[in-house]
Amino acid sequence: MTTWNLTGTEHHVLICNGSSCMRKGGEEVTQAVRDEIASLGIDSKIHTTRTRCNGRCKDACVVIVYPQGAWLNGMTPERGREMVRKLAEDELKCLQPFTTYEFRRGAMAPVDNNVTFAGISKT
Ligand code: FES
């Protein structure tokens, strides 16, 4: 078991490792994201976590970035590496074409970019 000191962490990246995302390259995305973080020497700034299904399987492979609350769809190893480089520069806006939802004014909101699949209502 590992207990990381998270002091100074600027971003938490959740990489979906649920079955749908794993069929769409989740392991390769995970390795690419972690490799790019290590290559840039920014392990103390970006923390990654593998997750189980995040409930957005049609968006596989899903990656979620906090504190922005950005949910990214269709992630590939190349997009994962690009995401890390943009996070290092605080330019996540450049990934907007792949963002389905983001946290705005206290709630998740869809991003208007033609890639958002509405999904099933929880109510
Ligand atoms: S398996 Fe990734 S969102 Fe369902």
Q: How would you portray this structure in words?
A:
- The structure is a single chain.
- Helix content is 26%, strand content 24%.
- The protein is of the alpha+beta class and 123 residues long.
- It has one domain (11-110): Glutaredoxin, CATH 3.40.30.10.
- The protein is globular and about 40 Å long.
- The chain starts with 10 loop residues before the first strand and ends in a 13-residue tail after the last strand.
- FE2/S2 (inorganic) cluster (FES) binds next to helix 1.
Biggest sheet, open or closed, and with what strands and sense? 6 strands, mixed
Counting DSSP H or I runs of 4 or more residues, the number of helices is 3
Residue-averaged pLDDT, rounded?
91
Return the string of H and E elements: EHHEEEHEE
Number of strands: 6
What topology does this entry show?
Layout: E1 11-16, H1 19-23, H2 26-40, E2 46-51, E3 63-66, E4 70-72, H3 77-88, E5 99-104, E6 107-110
Parallel strand pairs: 1-2
Antiparallel strand pairs: 1-3, 3-4, 4-5, 5-6
FE2/S2 (inorganic) cluster binds next to helix 1.
Gist of the model:
It is built from 3 helices and 6 strands. It has helices at residues 19-23, 26-40, 77-88, and strands spanning 11-16, 46-51, 63-66, 70-72, 99-104, 107-110. Residues 16, 18-21, 53-57, 60, 62 line the site of FE2/S2 (inorganic) cluster (FES).
